[in-house]
Amino acid sequence: MHGRVRAMVMRALGEPDRLELSELPDPQPGPEQISIDVEAIGCNFADILICRGAYQLKPALPFSPGSEVAGRVRALGAGVRGFSPGQRVAAQLGYGGYATIAVADARRVQPLPEGMAPADAAALGIAYQTAYLALADRARIAPGETLLVQAAAGGVGLAAVQIGRALGARVIAGAGSDDKLALCVQHGANEGVNTRAEGWDERVRALTSGRGADVIYESVGGDVLERSLKCIAWGGRLLVIGFSSGEIPSVRLSRIMLKHISVVGLNLGGYHEHQPEQLAEAMQRLFALYADGLRPLIHARYPLSEAPHALAALAGRQTAGKLILEP
Ligand SMILES: NC(=O)c1ccc[n+]([C@@H]2O[C@H](COP(=O)([O-])OP(=O)(O)OC[C@H]3O[C@@H](n4cnc5c(N)ncnc54)[C@H](OP(=O)(O)O)[C@@H]3O)[C@@H](O)[C@H]2O)c1
User: Which one is the CATH code of 127-269: 3.30.420.10, 3.40.50.720, 3.40.50.300, 3.10.310.10?
Assistant: First the structure.
C-alpha cells in the first residue's frame, strides 16, 4: 500500500516552533515492524528535548519527533505475527510519531481493549508506563506509604498521582500553582504543596509528622530535587524520572548515607531492551486500571499542524495532564 504521509518535520535543531508540515513518501515497515495509520499522538516533554538536540536519542535530520501513537495497523513487516491490518493498536517509538503514518517495532505495539478511545490510548502510553513501573517495580511502594510526586499536574506526574493512589499510597502533590494542586486533588492526591512557594519542604515534613515522604517521584531536577532530599523519610526512595527544569543536580552523597536513602533511576526505553515482559505486564495492568475507571486527563487536543503551539504550552508550564495531536 503506497501513498503520501503528512508529518511535522525538523530540518534543523532548535525550538519546536521550527516544526514544518511536510509531505513525504509513506514509510514501509521493515522486518519485525508494523506501520500504523495514526489517529492520536501523545505529546511528551522529551519531544521538546529531541527537537533541541538535548535528548539522549539524536536522530539524523530531517526527522519527526513523537514517541507515542494510537491508530490502526496499516501494514506488517516480514516476520510479524499476531497482528492484522485494521486492528486498533497503541505503540511507543523513539521518534517519528508526529505523522499520519508511523512505523514501530512490533514488540512495542499493543492491541487495544474494546472501547478505548484513540486519544486515551495515546495518553496512556509513556506517562502511565513510566509511573506504574517507577512506583510498582522500581520503588516497590507499599500501601500506606507516603508518596510525594513532583510536577504532579504534568503528564508523568498526574499518572503517578493516580497510580500511587491505586496502589494504596498516601499522595502529596507538588506543583507550581494552586490551580494545578486543586486539579491533583481532584485526581486523587490527598494533599498538595506549591513548589514555587518558600518552605514547601517544611510543609511536606509537617504533613508527615516530621518523618518526610517514603517515596519521592522526581521529574524536575534542579532546586526541586535538592529540596526534595530535605523532606524524604529515613530509608526513603528517591525516584529519578527526569529534569524538566533543565538542571541535572549533583547530590552530596553524605546526605544519601546519613538518611539511609536509596536513589532509584528509571529509563522507560531501557525496559524495551532489557525487560520487555515487565513492560507488557505493566500495560496489561494499566488496561485493567482503565477498565476499573482510571482515565488519563487530556488537557487539550490540537490538529497535527499545531504541534508547535502544543509543545510551546508544554515547555511553558501551562499544561496539566496530557496533550494530544490529531492528524
Ligand atoms: N525516565 C523516563 O524514562 C521518563 C519517561 C517519561 C518522561 N520522563 C521525563 O519526565 C519529565 C516530565 O515529562 P512530561 O512529558 O510528563 O512533562 P510535564 O511534567 O507535563 O511538563 C513538565 C512540568 O515540569 C515542571 N517544571 C518545573 N520547572 C520547569 C521548567 N524550568 N521548564 C519546564 N517545566 C518545568 C512544570 O510543572 P510545575 O509548573 O508544576 O512546576 C511542567 O508542567 C520530563 O523531564 C521527561 O523527560 C522520563
Answer: 3.40.50.720
Could you report the per-residue pLDDT of 144-192, keeping only the tens digit for each?
Answer: 999 999 999 999 999 999 999 999 999 999 999 999 999 999 999 999 9
- Beta-bridge partners for 173: 149, 192
Alpha carbons 96 and 153: distance in angstroms, whole number = 26
Fold classified for 4-124+296-326:
Quinone Oxidoreductase; Chain A, domain 1 (3.90.180)
User: What is the tens place of the pLDDT at every residue in 184-232?
Assistant: 999 999 999 999 999 999 999 999 999 999 999 999 999 999 999 999 9
What is the predicted pLDDT for the residue at 4? 86
Angle between helices 178-186 and 155-166 (to 10 degrees): 40
Nearest residue to 150 (alpha-carbon basis) of 173, 171, 133, 178: 173
Residue nearest to atom 41 of ligand 1 (CA): 176
For atom 37 of ligand 1, the residue with the nearest CA is 151
Ligand 1 geometric centre to CA of 57 (Å):
17
| Angstrom distance (rounded) from CA 220 to CA 224 | 6
CA 80/CA 77 separation, integer angstroms? 6
**Which of 105, 118, 26 is CA-nearest to residue 71?**
118
| Cell, residue 136 | 510498582
Residues near 49 by beta carbon (within 8 Å), at least 6 away in sequence: 55
Identify the residue whose C-alpha is closest to ligand 1 atom 10: 242
With 0.90 as the threshold, say if the pTM is over it: yes
All three cell numbers of 292:
476499573
Domain with CATH 3.90.180.10 in the chain: 4-124+296-326
Q: What average pLDDT does this structure show over 32-57?
A: 97
